[in-house]
Structure prediction request, 90 residues.
Amino acid sequence: MGETREARLKRMTMRSWRRGIKEMDLILGPWAEAHLAALDAATLELYDALLAENDQDIYPWITTATATPTQYVALIDQIRGFARTRIAAL
Prediction:
């Protein structure tokens, strides 16, 4: 039997908060809490793949220091926009 949606969302949320570097915890954790439950199956698959990437790769994608791989462009844009809005509100 596969992982239930509820278990998957919990795992992905925890993995979003428990990254390798604190900056990624603070970017992905809040985004996951705000958005994961509403994502469709394809976007959940994509986000799960993103979670398997190294933080040292993801962080420059989010900060636009390096080009984002094509498959992640829309997702990274959404995460980046959320992070900017959240920071601006502080």
